[in-house]
Amino acid sequence: MRVLICLLFLFVLSPTVQALEPVKISYPATSYTTMPIVVGLKEGFFDREGLDLKLIRIGSTISIVAVINGEIDFTTSQGSIVRAAARGIPVKSVAILADRPAYFLVAKPGITSMGSLTGTDKKIIGINTLGASAHIITKEVLARYGLNPDKDVSIIVSGDQRTSLQAVQLGRIDATLVSIPWQSEAKKFGFNILAYAGDVLQMPLGGIGAAENLIQKRPDLVKKVLRATLKGTAFLREKKNKKRVVEVMAQWFGINEEIANESYDGMILVYPSSGTTSPESMRKDLEIARKLGYIKGDVPLSQVVDFGLLREIQKELGIHD
Predict the structure, then answer these.
(1) In the structure, what pLDDT confidence band is assigned to residue 221 with cuts at 50, 70 and 90?
(2) Where are the domains of the chain?
(3) Mean pLDDT of 141-149
(4) Pick from 84, 46, 48, 45: which is nearest to 68 by CA?
(5) If you classify domain 103-200 with CATH, what class do you get?
(6) Which CATH architecture has domain 13-100+203-317?
(7) Taking the CA atoms of the chain, what radius of gyration do you get in angstroms?
(8) What is the pTM of this model?
(9) What would the pLDDT profile of 75-104 be if each residue is shown by its tens digit?
């Protein structure tokens, strides 16, 4: 009996059985931009930081309100965080998850080029959310190819990427913007890839955003999330882990491992190991948002990003820009 009591006493005191701290991170859609966090969760990096991570799908606009209200702790809606911060809302980006748009504009058979989107019958392009990053990318890509996104086409909300591809199949829309690995799925359906956003645009797409209040009052929590995420990024970029990452991709995207395997090599190129990107890339994000009317005037980067805690974690892990 004494032995049993001693064992129970040690069990209670053991740090390995202490309750994990709940932390909520929102994401706007099932996308490649969240993969470093997903891998970090699957590989136990968040558990090792003492965090019980819950990933919650919330629209980009709502996520900003949820972050401010403390209903969620962090969001991966990088573009929305930056644009909100630029308008004076007390939020900031604390890390970059993906530094280029691995997005493809795909269209139904019969539409074989960007020029095919124009004509007497206005073509319909579906996206997941109006005003979010996918919307901005779509308009920017169209403009780069000489189309007026506000006049030459109609851009509507068609749902997430799987739903949007189904809408193209059913003829409800003519084209849609999808991220890697959904372009492989689109090709299986016989759709045409009209443009790759990464060829004409470089800007951060995924990131980790938080309320300034959380950054100031809970730097320990922010650093735990950043540490686990950077470890997730390092794991998925290491090609010896490809088999495992492909398994996680298949589960996360709801696709078969063949398609995930085809997309892996291209996907890992978008994840900066440092969790940061160039100031030029960040300014490009602001420039596009300003051009499209989402923000006004010049906005200093210090108003929209705070990489101070990230720098501490980089130094701790021996990571360099």
Answers:
(1) very high
(2) 13-100+203-317, 103-200
(3) 93
(4) 84
(5) alpha beta
(6) 3-Layer(aba) Sandwich (3.40)
(7) 21
(8) 0.80
(9) 999 988 999 999 999 999 999 999 888 899
